[in-house]
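retry 2 of 3: previous attempt timed out while embedding 2'-O-acetyl adenosine-5-diphosphoribose. Reduced batch size to 1 and resubmitted. Inputs unchanged:
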Amino acid sequence: MQKRPLATNNVPLETRIYQAGAVLAAATRVVCLTGAGVSAESGIATFRDAKSGFWAKFNPEQLASQAGFAADGGLVWRWYMERLRAVEQAQPNLGHLALAQLARRIADFTLVTQNVDDLHERAGHDHVLHLHGHLHRFRCNLCNDEHRLEMHERNQSEPPRCARCGDRVRPDVVWFGEMMPSRIWDAAWRATQRCQVMLVVGTSAVVYPASQLPLAAAQQGATVIDINPECTPISEMAAFFLQGASGQILPRLMAAVDQATGIA
Ligand code: OAD
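retry 2 succeeded.
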């Protein structure tokens, strides 16, 4: 596993941002893995924040599992509709926008997200690998048929019914105990195996298997850059831990990339 260079610990943040920017500017194959933290400055709650995180207030088993849906599908439906409304009212923040700008500079840039919101797309990414699915897509819980959400269904207290088989409709997200779509995971894994830089933004990196991507990248020799206000298992092993909010750090990192490529 890659060890953080000792010097990094004593180097001021601004210098580390410029060093990381130079590494990114020289790279042609980059993977970025994002988590809930990248959307925090858009007003979307994270999962594990001790006060405002979803899992501090709600039980994941009740809201994000097949057992929870079976026990109280209405509760699950109303929670996801509330989250959908929050995302629709939110706007991409400076971090999302800087990432979209970075993607345009790198020949082979793969964006992998654990987020179910569409803020990366709205910031300008046309191809995002959503490991945990999409908040704004729906399918039948039984036959998997896609379901187009009608306006009136948003305010229903119970999940709508599938037009094909009559079973209950659910959000097209990955719940605990469910498999990720293998096509998405395989694409993320392949990109990780060939990347020169892995940029990790706003994830606690505790959910398997997404948490394995930065480790796999480091093992095959990629430089890992981690952006997070808090120290995580990834910050510990990253070549560059850029501590802070992504809406503040990413634009500075982008400026450093510009400077290293002679654009600024
Ligand atoms: P978490 O809530 O576990 O972690 C969010 C991370 O974002 C934490 O490490 C925070 O320190 C960091 N953070 C907070 N504000 C930030 C900011 N402004 N800028 C950058 N980082 C910030 O969310 P995830 O790691 O995304 O899965 O969680 C992974 C998965 O666990 C989710 O996709 C979800 C959840 O259970 C499913 O629902 C399947």
